[in-house]
Amino acid sequence: MVRFLKWLLAAALVLVLCVAGAYVLSRALGASGAEREALALLDQPPAPPARDGFAALYTASHDIPEGEQVSLVAEEVRRFKATPLRRDGSSDWSSLLQERPSLAVTRDGDPAWCNLRGADCLGQGQVRGARDAYAGLLERNARALDRAEALHGYDGFPNPFPPRLDMPLPGFQVLTRLTTRTAWRFAEGQADLALADACRDVATGRQLIESGDSLVGSMIGAAMVQGNAQLLAQMLAELPREHPLPEQCRQAFERPVALEQGVCRTMLSEGRFMAGGLRTQVNAEVAASAVEHEVPAWALGLLFDPERTAARAAPTFAWYCGGEARRQLAQDQPLRDPTPPRSRRSLACVSNAIGCILADIASPAYAEYGMRLQDADARLRTVAALLWLRDQDGPIDAAALERVPAALRSPARPFQQDLEAGTLGTPVFWAKGADADGSWSVPLPASRLQPAAPSP
């Protein structure tokens, strides 16, 4: 019995030494070379835009003169950096915008702003069915809408606040409301102004995607492309083919979107936000709660390393800048990282078990965002093809569609023409942005011409 107990004690000691050795070795090894390289890519600051519009966007919904906008944002950033964080990751910071009058005016009974993913902004179910109500809504919000319209001239909107989980975001919502005014102007007979509005806002959406300043901003850009491209096609369907297009439309659709650049920058920006949150606000207790694992308090610090967790997550974002992502984009294949999931039973996770779980939780969700940007590109190509077809002589039929330039075509998603319904469409990857058949379609030019009023 004594000998057995000695063997048992010796085995337990060996096991403890093995576990301790594995833990020490895991700590000593740290992040892998690929993880460190990916994290270094995230930490590299992006080049500033030639004309930075963040201050104008951040203050667009408030009554702040243009000459004060940059200084207000600088003070916001200074105060934000100086505000200490609590243990739970929150802070007492409050925005100076709360002290300024808002330009966004709402009243009971106001009609709803158009949904950029909807298809009936112009119809009787929305703007045309309540033109007087929309006239009042737009008049009360005219200053905010004018401020949003003026954002078209900027090259990017990089967020100057430190990348933390409580990082303030600009009010992108004001940009999404411009489509409602465009539809109302067309319904009121201001066709040329409405066409120019829609194309300008498509260009703004493109700029948000290409600059890739934030994941939220790029998703708003994709929504602006969808909503305004849809509205543009609906307006052109009600106009004769010979109705002239404003120059803004040529500028919005004449060149391909810089999708490779936009996807890479967008994902790196989101990766910086993630890494900043882990480094500043996600302590061991918060991390353990996030992964819903009961872990003894004494073990939290031993099983969570914020820096190594950021490094483990970094390749998820850096992949979108690599060769495989570029190949998928060039072939218009859905963006999916084929790298097999990493094992949490690896030596690297022995000393960062909580961090490994936390880093792996959200990885699959980012494929959706990449595909939404690909769909924005497909919508731009579809409307560019629509404008090309509109300029040609003769009917817009299958033969005409065959002559659409190769630069406007996808190697994987051919256009879908329905002559009976009078539509041109494209398959889309993101289901929530698609019709029931997984496609997005717009009416053909002059296919919805309104009958002329009878002569008196």
Model description:
It is a single chain. With 456 residues, the protein is mainly α. The chain has a domain of 122 residues. It is built from 19 helices and 3 strands. The chain has a 3-stranded antiparallel beta sheet. The longest helix has 28 residues. It starts with a helix and ends in a 13-residue tail after the last strand. The C terminus is likely disordered.
Annotation keywords:
mainly alpha, three-stranded antiparallel β-sheet, 53% helix, 456 residues, disordered C terminus, 19 helices
Structure, briefly:
This protein is mainly α and 456 residues long. The chain has 19 helices and 3 strands.
Task: Give the secondary structure arrangement, pairings included.
Layout: H1 2-29, H2 33-43, H3 54-58, H4 66-82, H5 131-140, H6 142-149, H7 173-176, H8 178-187, H9 191-211, H10 215-237, H11 247-253, H12 259-280, H13 284-290, H14 297-303, H15 306-318, H16 323-330, H17 353-361, H18 366-391, H19 398-402, E1 416-418, E2 423-427, E3 439-443
Antiparallel strand pairs: 1-2, 2-3
Broad shape? globular
The class by helix and strand makeup works out as mainly alpha
Contiguous uncertain segments of 5+ residues: 14-19, 452-456
Largest sheet: 3 strands, antiparallel
- In whole angstroms, the N-to-C terminal distance is 116 Å
Radius of gyration equals: 27 Å
Q: In which range does the helix fraction lie? A: 40-55%
The number of distinct helices, counting runs of at least 4 residues, comes to 19
Number of strands: 3
* Order of the strands making up the biggest sheet: 1-2-3
Taken as a percent bin, the fraction of beta residues is under 5%
The average pLDDT score comes to: 87
Run of helices and strands:
HHHHHHHHHHHHHHHHHHHEEE
